[in-house]
From TrEMBL:
It is a multi-pass membrane protein. Its main location: membrane. The gene is cydB. This is Cytochrome c oxidase assembly protein. It is found in: Cell membrane. Belongs to the cytochrome ubiquinol oxidase subunit 2 family. The keyword Membrane applies. Pfam families: Cyt_bd_oxida_II (PF02322).
Length: 302
């Protein structure tokens, strides 16, 4: 049961990084993709209906850690206390900017909202990679590398998403931004791949990490061929496989000296959580799938 819940938590983090990844990328690219108020509304409109729902995956992941592995939850948050505070600040800045932008009237207020969206998106996208890079390798270089990897993947993922969801000049800029972002994401991803542990036990990690690299390269090629839908699927797959590699490397000791078996809640608690998850998780997935289906069309300049 402990292994099952570790996999569930890894799945929730994967959903968060895939879905919020393009949200962060869109926010970070806002000044580069939009020229004028109408195009800014067009760019932000791509994530307007979904960004807050995507954050449910983070709440679910942290909540599952608290319930299934309380020692992991407390150790994770306390070890990265300052970074987690900055994550919360970044999420607040981004959320306030997105919510207030449609309500403000002056150009100065709109510019402040845009600054909050950009700052929050860049900050959080970098910090998540830095946190997990430090958790996995424990060095300053790995912390910076992890942050650079998560930020570059988010920017690439977000650029592909905007190119998929828009038309006109914004679409063309987003495609160019995706190609430029790939020039940074691919080398950083290769550096991250080389940092994985070696040995017979690490073969599955190298397989998933290698598949992530292949998906990332395929995504870039598909952007070049103007196949935005398949390109987005490829970058999403790359992020999902990279996250799977991350949690595979963390198992069975997500914190130094503590295994999942030692950090787990009582068997009865895990059983109750399983029944709750069997009811709640399909509902979350169904609702978000419906949301993306409803808002599937491209956005024009308004």
């Amino acid at each position: 049961m402990t292994t099952f819940w570790f996999i569930v938590i890894a799945f929730l983090w994967t959903g968060y990084f895939v879905l919020e990844g393009f949200d962060f990328g869109v926010g970070a690219l806002l000044p580069l993709l939009a020229r004028g108020p109408a195009e800014r509304r067009q760019v932000l409109g791509t994530i307007g209906p979904v960004w807050d729902g995507n954050e449910v995956w983070l709440i679910s992941a942290i909540g599952a850690m608290f319930a299934a592995f309380p020692a992991w939850y407390s150790g994770f948050l306390s070890e990265f206390y300052l970074a987690m505070v900055l994550v919360v600040v970044g999420l607040i800045l981004r959320g306030v900017g997105l919510e207030w932008r449609g309500k403000v009237r002056s150009g100065t207020e709109a510019a402040l909202c845009d600054a909050g969206v950009v700052t929050g998106s860049v900050l959080v996208a970098f910090l998540w990679g830095a946190i997990f890079g430090n958790l996995l390798f424990g060095t300053g270089l790995a912390t910076v590398l992890g942050g650079a990897l998560s930020l570059s993947l988010a920017v690439l993922h977000g650029a592909v998403f905007v190119s998929l969801k828009t038309e006109g000049a914004v679409r063309a800029r987003a495609r160019l931004a995706a190609l430029l972002a790939s020039a940074g994401a691919l080398p950083v991803a290769i550096a991250g791949l080389s940092a994985l542990p070696s040995g017979a036990d690490s073969v599955p990690l190298w397989v998933t990490a290698g598949a992530a690299m292949a998906a990332l390269a395929a995504g870039v090629a598909l952007v070049w061929r103007r196949r935005e839908g398949w390109a987005f699927a490829a970058t999403a797959t790359a992020i999902a496989l990279a996250t799977a590699s991350l949690f595979g490397a963390l198992y069975p000791a997500p914190l130094p000296g503590l295994t999942v078996a030692e950090m787990a809640s009582a068997p009865y608690t895990l059983t109750v959580l399983t029944w709750i998850g069997l009811v709640a998780l399909p509902g979350v997935i169904a609702y978000q799938s419906w949301t993306y289906w409803v808002f599937r069309k491209r956005l024009t300049r308004v």
